[in-house]
Design goal:
Distance between the termini of chain C: 80 Å
Distance between the termini of chain A: 34 Å
CATH architecture of the largest domain in chain A: 3-Layer(aba) Sandwich
Chains: A alpha/beta (343), B mainly alpha (334), C alpha/beta (388)
Shape of chain A: globular
Number of strands of chain C: 14
Number of helices of chain A: 15
CATH class of the largest domain in chain C: Alpha Beta
Number of domains of chain C: 2
Radius of gyration of chain A: 21 Å
Strand content of chain C: 15-25%
Number of strands of chain A: 10
Helix content of chain A: 25-40%
Oligomer: heterotrimer
Strand order of the largest sheet of chain C: 2-1-3-4-5
Chain lengths: 343, 334, 388
């Protein structure tokens, strides 16, 4: 992908998100206002009731970050933009007014204690759930309410906490499935080509195999090139999912607990893999429990608690934030929290 | 994979050889008749297995599509004088369109609900056939003229045998191609993990619909030809019992196995012919055979036997293993 | 002495030969039985037809054999169960012809299974006596195909004749949606003009319907209805009869031969009183006057069947009896099992008295029954009685 290389740590002004946590206000003015508290007092009602957050937005529905785009120089500054996203299940608000902006070539982690709404946020960000309110933009596309597969088609590759492997085919075919949308040729032509196995398809299949094999090498699964998927060990399945997601040629990779269930050395390997991917220009959103991994690879961290944003910023800042420490460890432990989180 | 691709050709060659050599033991028309019936059932079951075994969607209404194809041929050739081939193609197109329209709402359902909905669709089709007696002849059935391709009439069992044999090979070839294509992988993927497939950009609903339509079209084509072959068709062929028979053939032979569908069709077409001498006990024995198969070979005949061979392959000389695999066509896991 | 000895020994020799004769002479003739092929719907939705048919064939073949067989040969029954499936029927018919090489086929419980086998019998040139009802089986006449049951059309005609006798001409129809119902309705509509019967109402009900008041009310409100006919099979006609009574409709109600059984009276109860229907004489066998030429055959068959199987006799079994006996008679008359000769003999059947009536076949009529085959019955005092 043509995303720019990862910006250096002390990245200058080209990355507004970096600066964002520092001044604690969201770059978008209307969000900043709402982000302060849910009980925002009477905003000037533009057109009737103001309880619905989307109501205020249609004005800049074209692209919420267009102001920024204008401000920033060079390539686009934000690849994924989540704005004021909420999701209610009955009376429970699992995700409450969360915003997130991910810059190209960075790793953005989402952490939080169990039940903080991480998985819900992730499922919203890839279309498994539809938001109750708020919007999701991937590049120039408003994906709010779009079906799951549409997110994938527009460049969002994802993995699952419990690997969703296709056990009825080989490991290589699993990766080839990821290439699907680049191979599809419409209902009738595609069907005719497949049924008759036309030469064009044969050539495409050969290429597909080669590229899938190459991706398996990238994630370190070269020894499983001939294996059936259900013969792979758990750690390898996690990588196989990453390879499949990469086969989509995504703009953004959404990793849901890639280290869950892995031992220490496997987790380190995953960490290295993420590092390699980012070096190649990949943008990653990471939901993870393994703090060591998160602190090691992330450029920015969003901390959720009870479905709301608790803190956001670079790793160093987040780990020192007393609210984060309190959320994770409780008030009593807050004293020696510094060392505990640093583990 | 290359292994699978080569065994795919082995399977086709083995099937072609069986079809070519079978006439040596088919001593009279009756045996030809049974062989032809196996061919018809196998073609429908391959199509149904694409839907059930590969895409993971159940249909308890496939006999309805079979019946519609049959009646389309009967009525279009009989009442309107259409050439049989055109009538059969029109029937397939019509059934494909119906499956498309009905499939859109139906395939949103899952599991038992999908089974119920397809069952309902099949029953509606068979009721329409029974009640439109002016067109269909009602419950008593309707006579269907002979079939001819490009001026060659298929008059005797032998001609039909070669025609259906060729068609079966073609169906197997087409289906194998489909399974081993991007589209086939997409289908298998959404069977295994629908959410995983969606994450790979696969529009599950569109693909289910596509394979449902294709599968229904296969059934309609087989129905058209079977009607011409039989020379007479009754609504029973569009009924629930026939649907269940077809699903049983697929499950017994092996889900997600092309050759499983062929073997299932062969076994369940042959068994009643063999067991009929048992008279009153026929159904009991047939039931027992099927239960035993599902208990001891739970994945169906072909995949289970293939797995057994896999386990034994280390004990056997490799050349023999290869040949055996080619023979049974190494089914895939469901 | 030597003279006596030689005569004696000669006598012994002759006696020995005579005893041994059956073992040597023409073993093919004596040992090879005549094969009667049959495919019947013994199980499945049409088992009410196939079951009594098969029982009857088995029982009477046993009897014929006990009485010495036909042409000095035993009869052998080769039967298959087509479960009411026309495709299976075709396959089994092929099997009978090609594999079992039967001499004659007596079978085909339903019109569908019969029609599926007709082209095979025609092609293989084998006599085929069907036990199914519809007119299409013998119309147009097919060289090798015969049938024993009376047709739906005849039932309609029988009713129409009765209507004429009662000086009624405006008829309301209410029919079910089964095969029997539809076929009979169509035949009635077809032959009504011939008997100057006006069909002034034509209602139908579904297979599982449990109330036909709506349809009957419509008929009741149709101007000029003088009688109602219900071509129907199964439970429907009993419900129609009850609703008919409940609605207080007073015109005569006719049922069809499809419900000609005690079961119908049981289901319809008091409402059945006065209902008329055309039926095979088998239903009232014992009540027939001694002068009735058919009585002997009917009583004999009825008593045999009911004695052996402890269940009520049905006309369907009677059709099988007629089919078998027609085949036996034809083989006896032809003096061989040569298929062409048997066929010709079948076509030449005259005056055969069967359970369905007197059979007089011809080149144009491969059923050979006339309206006398049906008797008009009426329910009186919870029983069927002959309408005089």
């Amino acid at each position: 992908m043509s995303a720019p290389a990862r910006p250096p740590e002390g990245g200058a002004s080209q990355s507004p998100e970096r600066a964002q946590p520092a001044n604690r206000t969201h770059p978008l003015p209307q969000e900043g206002g709402r982000g302060d508290g849910s009980s925002t007092p009477a905003r000037p009602p533009e057109g009737g009731a103001s309880q619905s957050p989307e109501r205020a937005q249609p004005a800049n529905r074209t692209h919420p970050l267009s102001q920024e785009g204008g401000r920033g120089e060079g390539p686009r500054m934000t690849i994924l933009s989540v704005q004021n996203l909420s999701r209610r299940f009955g009376g429970l608000t699992a995700v409450d007014d969360v915003s997130l902006a991910v810059s190209p070539g960075t790793v953005h982690a989402v952490i939080g204690p169990n039940g903080a709404g991480k998985t819900t946020l992730l499922n919203l960000m890839c279309g498994i759930y539809t938001p109750s309110s708020g919007s999701i933009w991937l590049d120039d596309h408003d994906l709010s309410g779009a079906p799951h597969y549409a997110f994938a088609r527009l460049g969002l590759g994802r993995t699952f906490q419990t690997p969703q492997i296709f056990n009825n085919m080989s490991a290589l075919e699993n990766v080839m499935v990821g290439r699907y949308m680049h191979e599809q040729r419409g209902l009738f032509l595609g069907l005719a080509e497949a049924l008759l196995r036309l030469p064009t398809l044969r050539a495409a299949e050969r290429r597909s195999r080669e590229e899938a094999a190459e991706l398996m090498r990238v994630v370190g699964l070269e020894r499983y090139l001939d294996a059936e998927a259900d013969a792979l060990p758990y750690g390898a399945l996690k990588r196989l999912e990453i390879a499949r997601a990469l086969a989509l040629k995504p703009k953004l990779l959404l990793l849901d607990e890639p280290a869950a269930g892995l031992n220490h050395s496997e987790a380190v390997e995953i960490e290295q893999l993420i590092g390699q991917l980012v070096e190649r220009g990949m943008t990653v959103v990471l939901v993870e429990h393994n703090m060591r991994l998160v602190m090691e690879v992330s450029d920015a961290i969003l901390v959720l608690d009870h479905g709301r944003r608790l803190a956001e910023g670079p790793p160093q800042m987040v780990r020192e934030d007393p609210r984060v420490i309190e959320a994770y460890l409780g008030k009593e432990a807050a004293e020696d929290a510094r060392s505990a989180v640093a583990v | 994979m290359s292994h699978y691709r080569s065994s795919r050709h082995h399977g086709l060659i083995a099937l072609a050889a069986i079809i070519a050599l079978l006439p040596l033991v088919l001593s009279n028309k009756y045996f030809y008749d049974v062989a032809i019936l196996i061919g018809f059932n196998a073609i429908v079951c391959i199509g149904l297995n694409l839907l059930i075994g590969y895409a993971g969607q159940i249909s308890l209404g496939h006999a309805g599509f079979f019946g519609l194809g049959a009646y389309a041929s009967a009525i279009l050739t009989g009442n309107y004088g259409w050439p049989p081939v055109i009538a059969a193609l029109a029937g397939m197109a019509g059934v494909g369109s119906l499956a498309f329209l009905a499939g859109r709402p139906i395939l949103k359902l899952k599991g038992h609900y999908l089974a119920m909905a397809t069952l309902g669709l099949g029953i509606i089709i068979s009721l329409v056939i029974v009640n439109q007696d002016r067109l269909t002849g009602g419950p008593d059935g309707i006579t269907v003229g002979p079939f001819s391709v490009l001026g060659f009439a298929l008059e005797n069992e032998r001609a039909w045998y070669w025609f259906i044999g060729g068609l079966l090979l073609l169906t197997v070839w087409l289906s194998q191609n489909l399974i081993d294509s991007p589209m086939g992988r997409a289908l298998r993927a959404l069977h295994s993990s629908e959410v995983g497939a969606q994450a790979a950009g696969i529009n599950a609903a569109a693909h289910k619909l596509q394979i449902f339509v294709l599968s229904a079209t296969f059934a309609a084509g087989a129905g058209s030809l079977a009607a011409h072959y039989s020379g007479f068709i009754t609504p029973a062929k569009a009924g629930f019992i026939h649907s269940v028979e077809l699903v049983t053939m697929v499950v017994l032979g092996g889900m997600a196995s092309i050759y499983g569908a062929v073997v299932g069709a062969a076994v369940l077409t042959l068994l009643p012919q063999i067991l009929t001498v048992l008279k009153d006990y026929e159904m009991v024995v047939l039931g027992a055979v099927m239960m035993a198969t599902m208990i001891f070979l739970p994945r169906g005949l072909v995949p289970s036997l293939a797995a057994l061979c896999e386990r034994w392959r280390d004990l056997l000389p490799p050349s023999l293993v290869l040949r055996l695999e080619a023979l049974i066509g190494r089914g895939r896991k469901p | 002495m030597s003279q006596t000895l030689s005569t004696r020994s000669l006598r012994w020799c002759l006696a020995g030969l005579a005893l041994a004769a059956p073992w040597f002479s023409a073993p093919t003739l004596a040992q090879e039985p005549i094969k009667i092929g049959s495919f019947l719907s013994v199980t499945g939705p049409a088992s009410f037809l196939g079951d009594p048919e098969l029982k009857t064939l088995e029982m009477y073949i046993e009897r014929v054999n006990a009485a010495g067989g036909v042409l000095g040969r035993k009869l052998q029954l080769v039967s298959y169960d087509d479960a009411g499936d026309a495709e299976k029927a075709r396959t089994f018919a092929t099997r009978l012809i090609e594999q079992d090489k039967v001499d004659v086929i007596v079978g085909g419980s339903t019109t569908g299974s019969t029609m599926a086998a007709v082209p095979l019998a025609e092609k293989a040139a084998i006599p085929f006596i069907s036990l199914a009802g519809a007119v299409v089986i013998i119309e147009p006449v097919k060289k090798w195909v015969f049938k024993t049951p009376h047709t739906d059309r005849m039932a309609c005609e029988k009713v129409f004749v009765d209507l004429q006798a009662r000086k009624l001409s405006k008829l309301g129809l209410i029919s079910g949606s089964g095969g029997f119902d539809k076929s009979m309705r169509a035949e009635c509509l077809k032959v009504a003009p011939k008997y100057q019967i006006d069909i002034v109402a034509d209602e139908t009900y579904g297979a599982g319907d449990t109330d036909m008041s709506a349809q009957l009310t419509k008929i009741k409100n149709t101007a000029g209805v003088q009688a109602v006919l219900n071509p129907g099979f199964g439970q429907g006609p009993a419900i129609v009869t009850k609703n008919f009574k409940q609605l207080g409709i007073t015109v005569p109600l006719y049922q069809s031969h499809g419900v000609a059984s005690k079961e119908f009276i049981k289901l319809a109860g008091d409402a059945a009183e006065g209902v008329r229907l055309p039926a095979s004489a088998l239903l009232v066998a014992e009540a027939l006057p001694e002068s009735d030429a058919q009585k002997k055959v009917l009583v004999s068959y009825k008593q045999s069947y009911e004695g052996k199987f402890k269940s009520d006799v049905s006309t369907f079994g009677g059709h099988a009896y007629d089919g078998l006996m027609l085949a036996v008679e034809a083989m006896k008359k032809a003096g061989s099992t040569d298929k062409a000769k048997v066929r010709d003999a079948l076509e030449a059947t005259k005056g055969y008295m069967g359970t369905a009536g007197v059979v007089n076949m011809s080149a144009n009529d491969h059923m050979g029954l006339d309206l006398t085959a049906f008797r008009m019955l009426e329910v009186k005092g919870g029983n069927w009685v002959l309408v005089k």
